[in-house]
What we know:
Elements lengths: L13 H8 L6 E4 L6 H14 L7 E4 L3 H18 L1 H8 L5 E2 L1 H12 L10 E3 L1 H14 L12 H14 L3 H8 L7 H18 L1 E3 H11 L3 H10 L2 E4 L7 H10 L6 E5 L14 H5 L9 E3 L3 E2 L4 H12 L10 E2 L8 E5 L2 H17 L7 E5 L6 H9 L4 E4 L8 H14 L4 H8 L7 H13 L17 H16 L6 H17 L3 H15 L5 H10 L4 E2 L13 E5 L8 E6 L16 H15 L2 E10 L1 E4 L8 E4 L15 E5 L8 H7 L10 H7 L3
Parallel strand pairs: 1-7, 1-8, 2-3, 2-6, 4-5, 6-7, 9-10, 11-17, 11-20, 12-15, 12-16, 13-15, 16-17
Antiparallel strand pairs: 13-14, 18-19
Helix pairs in contact: 1-2, 2-3, 3-4, 5-10, 5-23, 6-7, 6-9, 7-8, 10-12, 14-24, 15-16, 17-18, 17-20, 17-21, 18-19, 20-21, 21-22
Bound molecules: adenosine-5'-triphosphate and magnesium ion (MG).
The site of adenosine-5'-triphosphate (ATP) has 17 residues, from helix 2.
Amino acid sequence: DSADIPAYLKTLNAAQRDAAVAPDEVPLLIIAGAGTGKTNTLAHRVAHLLAQGADPDRLLLLTFSRRAADEMTRRVQTIASKVSARHARLASGGFAWSGTFHGVGARLLRDYAQRIGLSPDFTIHDREDSADLMNLVRNDLGHSGKGKRFPLKGTCLAIYSAVINTQRDLANVLQSNFPWCAEWENELKSLYLGYVEAKQAQQVLDYDDLLLYWAQMVGEADLAREIGTRFSHALVDEYQDTNFLQAAILRAIKPDGRGLTVVGDDAQSIYSFRGASVRNILDFPTQFTPPARQIALEQNYRSTQPILAVSNAVIARAKERHSKELRSERISSEKPGLITVRDETDQATYVVERTLERREQGIPLKSQAVLFRAASHSARLEIELTRRNIPFIKFGGLKFLEARHVKDLLAILRWAQNLRDRVSGFRAIQLLPGIGPKTAGRIVDHLQNAAPGCELLAEQPVPEGAREAWSAFAALIEGLRQGADTWPAPLGSVVLWYDAQMDRLYEDADVRRSDIQQLTRIASSYPNRERFLTELTLDPPEATSDEAGVPLLDEDYLILSTIHSAKGKEWNAVTVLNVVDGCMPSDMATGSEAEIEEERRLLYVAMTRAKDHLDLLLPQRFYTNGPGGTGDRHVYASRTRFIPSGLLNAFAERSWPPAPEPPGLQAWAAQHPDASKPPLDLAARMRGMWK
Ligand code: ATP
Ligand code: MG
């Protein structure tokens, strides 16, 4: 009875508590719908493990983003403080092994580098760097140039990535996901071989390698045992979005599932386009002996009843799902809004006004979020917010890291770490006055084959006029290599050097300078250069309205986010943009039923982020890229197919701006009683003929 329940578990319901204290001999799966407290329960389980004597440094905590990992740590710390003062202290240092699969993988690989034939100085390429390297190899093989229809570098990389993450063979991936590239199978094969060889020669790993090398490493029995015993427990949130390699890694380090806990919701699987497989969570119960214990949670604590009702109705129509019933005790009389606006400009104006109105009503901007399908969809809104001086922070859009000047600086740091990294070197060297791609290419070619030291650096042939600049730069790199163990001091010398180049490189250098300052601030929050480079590459900070970077913590700002980046979060008021066919589902994703189903789950994820207020916006006109990116198109939109007419009365429907009343209509209506009916929408009918 309740007297036996430790205080720190008292806030949980019975099913959540069962999950939190379930014995760790048997693998555990918590599979449940949105807002039922899965993440919350996982945090309690971690605190419970600590209470039972687990060592925080031996817990492997895997979450979807670094931000989610930090949030998890905070939650655990709060709970641990209710266990005892000693446990509060224990948790206060955080968890050495928490983060994303990619982040944790990078650190483990560095630890074991020598044993698996990697240089411990390997550098990590982000997607753009990887595409650049792919392009270099492609050019070397003669697959590019005028008149060639060979797939573009981004497509080549996407195909490669799909093959790695799903571990299916190339022909198979081409046939099912990239049929228009199938004719290039042989050429792609040789391209990928060249790409792998280039990465190995340069000691660079791309995102996919972090998982692939990790999976290969624990594919060796002795390493698997060694790494497996480092971790007493492995706990994974958002398991529905893991891919084949990630599941294989977990199975390798916890072959009998002892100490393994995974948590997720199959109805929220939204990353299959990146190789994630919902099969991981669906098959989990039968993958171990003894089989996993499965716990379902049914009470939703997040959303009001009317919001949950429409969300449930949207997902209930999904073709395939693990059925679950969600209920909420949060009574409210407010129906979710379904608001028709003329176009995206009106949509932006509406959102801004409604946001301010809510702030007046006491809901701070931070408790409000605007969600959208693709990062570009918030463009109008961003303009309007900026015009009205409303601060916002944007998740999932153009990242800080993608800014050219930030990439420049990182390239210098990465190249100093690994002189064989051609892409970083090529970028860094061209920052010098008087050095172009030709010289830069020659230098990186030399160094790629040279011993990994920098004795040769100063002697590299450069054009006469660039001599002096080059020797200063070579000295800078040399200094960075010597100061590799100190941090963030070496960054100071790089910033100083780079600052002197900026006016020549960029017309708007001053604007960019504030980003560099921001980067310096971020850098000093990392313990060393290695952690800084790895985490910034894998999980860069968000872009904000404020050029100086992330708004101060005490400042209020509106949240803008792609739906993908909103996973796991919640806000008091949520507005979803462009809830129209062509956008949700996206024009680009209507190729197969599987793709459409993923779009449905995406809408479900968006709607279930809302606690008290949910507004779906339906612009009657919007621009789309067209199927397959066939160029800008202006389309007349209609309500998404995921909200069938039968569901409309669960919404409060309205138009904005409200249609003006025609003059004299009232007098006329008095004589013609039928005129009180809404006018016929002939325009909509005309459009309907073409749908
Ligand atoms: P998602 O599927 O979106 O990731 P989730 O299942 O992980 O959702 P949480 O984020 O853990 O759900 O919890 C949703 C909300 O419900 C949070 O605000 C959380 O604090 C609250 N909550 C969870 N469990 C309880 C409980 N037993 N009592 C009160 N509130 C709870
Ligand atoms: Mg969660």
